[in-house]
Amino acid sequence: MAFKVGDKIVHPSYGAGVVISIKEKQIGSHANTYYVIRMSEKRLTVMVPTDKAEALELRPVSEKAELAEMWDVLQSEPATLSNEYEKRQARIREKISSGDILQIAQAIRDLSAREQEKKLSQGDRTLMDQAEAFMASELALAKGVEPDEALRMIREALHDTETQPDSETDTTAETDAK
Q: Which of 39, 15, 43 minimizes the C-alpha distance to 131?
């Protein structure tokens, strides 16, 4: 998929950002074209070769239908996580590193349920924080809200299984017009 300046995208390792430019850069004798992406949450700029974007699994920020599925996953019955630390960590890490919003929602849901039963280990807490930050960065861009507000919406969805936070409001068009 080709992106253009202004597109809101998700990098599976860094989270959500906006393509701020497309540059050609010469490295040695080889010239390549790069997407220059300002990552929203990490105050970081990343350059990704345009010809590697698909292999890296860059994707557009989730749309309304995908976000509705995400809310459903957050509010669905959690899977039981392994009591074996290494297995649990590997499973959660795999979901987070996929960059897929639904996989990340599963990781958050399952860790949140585990946290209700007992205190999370430091490793589990770190993964929970990473997953929440990743999802919040994407949700913030998709909804046109601050990352802190997006994080509040995620946490609210985990504890309120009756409603989908702001599911009827699509602010994407409003933020595009700014």
A: 15
> Tell me, what amino acid is at 87?
K
For the purposes of burial, counting CB atoms within 10 Å of the CB of 17, is it exposed (0-12), middle (13-18) or buried (19 or more)? buried
Comparing CA positions, the residue from 178, 33, 132 lying closest to residue 124 is 132
Reported as a single tens digit per residue, the pLDDT across 102-150 is 999 999 999 999 999 989 999 999 999 999 999 999 999 999 999 899 9
Whose tokens are 């919040």? That residue is: 136
Q: Please name which of 57, 51, 54, 45 lies closest in space to residue 19, comparing C-alpha atoms.
A: 45
Gyration radius of the chain's alpha carbons: 17
Within 13 A of 167's CA, how many CA atoms are on the CB side?
15
pTM: 0.83
**Can you say how many angstroms the Cα of residue 136 is from the centroid of all Cα atoms in its chain?**
6
DSSP 10: E
Domains observed in the chain: 8-60 (2.40.10.170), 64-177 (1.20.58.1290)
User: In this structure, which amino acid lies at residue 136?
Assistant: A
Side-chain half-sphere exposure of 73, counting CA atoms within 13 A = 20
Would you state the structure tokens that stand for residue 139, as one six-digit string? 């949700």
pLDDT digits (tens, 9 = 90+) for 33-90: 999 999 986 679 999 999 999 999 999 999 999 999 999 999 999 999 999 999 999 9
